[in-house]
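Bug #77: duplicate submission created two jobs. Keeping one. Sequence:
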Amino acid sequence: MFSIKKLFGKDEKFYDLLEASAEETLTSTKLLSSYLQTCRSTNSSSHHDEIVETRRKDKGINRQINEELCKTFITPIEREDIDALAHALYRIPKMVEKLVQRLSIYPGRLPVAGFQGQAALLENASTTVVSMVKQLRKGARLSFIREENERLQQIEGEADKLMLDLLRDLYEGPYDAKETMILQELFELAEKAVDRCRDAGSIVFQITLKYS
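Kept job's structure:
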C-alpha cells in the first residue's frame, strides 16, 4: 500500500480531477450503449450531443490538470505520470465520440447487435478503470490493482475475440464491398476504445508498482 501523501501530497486536487476524468469516460461509454439502442431513430441526435458534451467536459478536465501541473512546483511523483494518466483517460471518450460520429453518417445496413456487444465490453472496461483510479486516493493496494489490471487484460482479450467473430460474420454476410470496408473500420474503432481503457489501467498499475 502507498500513501496519498507520497503520491500527490496533501493537496488532493489531482485526485479530484483524475477521478472526474475517469467518471466522464464511464459516462461516454454508457451513452454509447444508449445511442446504439436508438441510432436509427430520431432520438439518436440527443445521445450524440451528450457524447460530444462529455468529451468536451473531459477535455476541460485535462486542461485543468495541465494548468495545475504548471502551477505546482513540487510533486511527490514525476509529473509525467500524472500527465500520462490524464491523457490516457481523455483518449477514451475521444474514441467514443469518433465512433459515434462515423456511425451517425453511415447510411448502410448496420449490425447493431455486434456494436452493442462491443459497447458492453467497453462499459465493463471503463468501470474497472474508474475503480482503479479511485483507489489511488485511498492508497492503492498492489494486489487489488493487479487484479483489476488483469481484469482489463481479460476484457481486452474478449474484445479481440468478439472482433474476430464480428469480422467473420461481416465477411460471410450480405454486405457489399463498400459496406464491408466501412463496417470493419467501425468495429476496429470500438475495439480500440477498449484498448484505450487497458492503456489507462496499465498506467495506474505502473504508478502503484512505483510507490508500493
